[in-house]
Amino acid sequence: MATQEQLLAAVKNGYNFKGENVKLGVAMLDGKIVDGADINLPFKTLNRHGLIAGATGTGKTKTLQLICEFLSDASIPVLALDIKGDLSGIAAAGTDNDKIDERCRLLKVEYKPDAFPTEFYTLSGEQGVKLRATVSEFGPILLSKILSLNDTQGGLVAMIFKYCDDNKLPLLNLQDFIKVLQYVGNEGKDELQKSYGNISSTSTGTILRKVIELQQQGADMFFGEPSFEVDDLMRISDDGRGMINILRVTDMQNHPKLFSTFMLQLLAELYATCPEEGDPDKPKLVIFIDEAHLIFEEASDALMQQIETIIKLIRSKGIGIFFCTQNPQDVPASVLSQLGLKIQHALRAFTAADRKTIKQAAQNFPETEFYKTEDLLTQLGIGEALVTFLNEKGIPTPLVHTMLCPPRSRMDVLTDAELNAIVNKSKLVAKYNKSIDSESAYEILTGKLQEAADRTQQVQQQAAQQKQEQQAQKAQQKTGKEPSIFDSPAVKQMERTAASVITRSLLGALGLGGKSKRLW
Are strands 244-248 and 118-122 parallel, antiparallel or unpaired? Predict the structure, then answer.
């Protein structure tokens, strides 16, 4: 039977870090605090990604909130995707109460309520900085992935981008892309086939339907100018703390394609623009995806491949990605295996399937002589978790039952008035929330088609005029004289009418008017 002294020695040996770190909580054994067994979180390994899991109501979102606070204090910017809408309270100071006082006494920490520098973002019409990107920035590969196109259709999209580059047609929004797609499938088909190869009407129709589907989920709000610069996610506040950027996506369930589009673009842009950092002493940016099971449930194959690729490569850029979900099995195994930090809150065993899931979850953790992991997973209290992560040498730390520190910010949401006040003070709102309607492919092609229509009308008018002149020349050649006004059909009709009137007048004068009379 393991003792507290043995656990204390294991914690001090496994959680003793040389670099900058912060106290996450204190180890527990048999439901009791082990004095001095502090569980410290090293900043150096947070670019190795992580997982925060647990059933509803076990405190996983507050753990996410706590880590965001630690990162901000260490001048590390954060991007948190708030799907439930309960992370906004991080912008306001917390409130002391008896439960918090008792926990702080056990952990031997001082509770100092504090508000943190926060920026709110939105992909839809909610309050916050509007995130946008142009179609050109996506590029043909990512756009084809988000539209779930096959190789043939993807090749056509690549050809459209090449044509637009060659002819200086900016693709800013989906309206531009649709206009070009319609043009290459109709009026411009012959022009493009000479330089770029055959164009299938079936493929253009399929791509158009896919784009319309994306539009139906609100993608028009995301594509356009001004385009968001990822450097704005890495700002430091005036007091030296890292900005906590909260993307409010509470309506994500209604816009799964829009969210997938954002995730693809953001991860690709971060990877493309951030320089290689190697193993920095602390990350440049940490991304938290709350309720990540909703993302993986709706994720396309393209998004899954992109996430797997980015997870494997982006840590060298100094960027960490953390998933917060209800069950570790919600995260694909290919992604789960790349997550260095694991904080597991309680799981519930109501059914046989639940017990099987708990057994699988227990097998994801390092073996330990201090706990029966499978049993402990159902016995953890609120704000308690099993913790393990990579140390500075890349070795997993011992699995420890931990009582976590309480967040210092508000553990509740902001009111509408508080949220509006923060958004109204934002410098980024003034920078990004004013739409720009630059001349782009839509306007250029519309003008080009209008010019073609005007030329066609002019040609038709000239042809009609030439036809009239030819008819007049033929008439002249037939009569051998110049046509005069008296040759006009209208004049001849007037002559016939005048003759008829004169005839009736003469008959009347001869007494032959009235009823018709025969003269023979």
Answer: parallel
Global pTM exceeds 0.90: no
Bond preceding residue 483 cis, omega within 30 of 0:
no
CATH code at position 288: 3.40.50.300
Distance from C-alpha of 258 to C-alpha of 186, rounded to nearest angstrom: 29
Residue 173 CA, distance from chain mean position? 14
pLDDT by residue for the chain (520 residues), tens only, comes to: 678 999 999 999 888 888 899 999 999 999 999 999 999 999 999 999 999 999 988 999 999 999 999 999 999 999 999 888 889 999 999 999 999 999 999 999 999 999 999 999 988 777 899 888 888 888 898 888 888 888 899 999 999 899 888 888 888 888 889 988 888 888 778 878 888 888 888 889 999 999 998 888 888 888 888 888 899 999 999 999 999 999 988 776 667 667 777 777 888 888 888 999 878 889 999 999 887 877 777 666 767 777 788 888 898 999 999 999 988 888 888 888 889 999 999 998 888 888 888 988 888 888 999 999 999 999 999 999 999 998 888 889 999 999 999 999 999 999 999 999 999 999 899 888 887 665 656 667 676 656 555 555 666 666 677 777 777 777 777 665 555 555 555 555 666 666 666 666 665 555 555 444 433 3
121 and 214 inside one domain: no
End-to-end C-alpha distance for the chain, whole angstroms: 147
How many structural domains does the chain have? 2
Residue 479 domain-assigned (yes or no)? no
Helix, strand, or coil here: 402? strand
SS3 320: strand
Q: How many CB atoms lie within 10 A of CB 327?
A: 18
Burial class (CB in 10 A: 0-12, 13-18, 19+), 28: buried
Q: Tell me the residue type at 70.
A: F
Spatial separation of the C-alpha atoms in residues 218 and 126, rounded to whole Å = 13
Domain span including residue 205: 135-221
Contacts of 59 (CB under 8 A, 6+ apart): 345, 382, 383, 384, 385, 404
Pair 98, 25: CB distance under 8 Å: no
Backbone φ and ψ for 21, nearest 5 degrees, come out as -150, 175
